[in-house]
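Entry:
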Amino acid sequence: MQNNNVGERSPLSPARKPISARTVAVTAGIRQDGDTTRVRLTAAYVTALEAAGLVPLIIPPLTDKGAAAAILDSVAGLMLTGGGDIDPARYGERRHEKVSNVNVARDATEVALVEEARRRRTPVLAICRGIQVLNVALGGTLVQDIPSQCPGALAHDEDTPRNSRSHDISVEPGSLIANAIGTGSCSVNSFHHQSVKGLGEGLKVTARSPDGVIEGIEAEGEDWWVLAVQWHPEEMTDSAEPWDRGLFRAFAEKLTA
């Protein structure tokens, strides 16, 4: 496996940029906890953003899609996080029996945020479910269940530690992902049973696993900074390799440039 690690730079100093330039809207899910409904977000996202010098603003599923404009008025960037499956009705398909944990309010909130981010060219970092909802919001489709719909595919939803690297990926030279991680190939963790299938409008594939499953997409052209990955880099920021930290650093540098 190629390993062209680049030197790591220190996180952005909070004294260098105002808070507004470093604040990121971070999407979250909800879960039922007994008789209480709670907003849910894995703390690793917060840790990774703070380590890159950014300030997270947590956005739960909302009933008002019109809130997207007000949210993005208050931040410099948008991060779409992992979670349950997206309702296949959003991309015109019947629901596969393996689809689970659908939250239509979260789908609506995140689709509205993507559409507003595209309109105003707000930088976007998307992770796992995030790459999928980004693609669907822009008119794309998904593989609803890799094991049953992609014969011969690698195991992409493994029962392994969150910080365990599962398989290699290859990355397009010169892409945002390649520049961020400093190499054309690396190994990643993997906890997903769905993936991008038909690309949404204005998107391009920039990373794949050896079985052809799409692991990274970006916006075409240079007027909208979009970096979307299928793995979970937030769980790998303590690793010896700088690859995953590089994604958050690239996002931070774009927001504060």
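Residues 1-6 have pLDDT under 50 and may be disordered.
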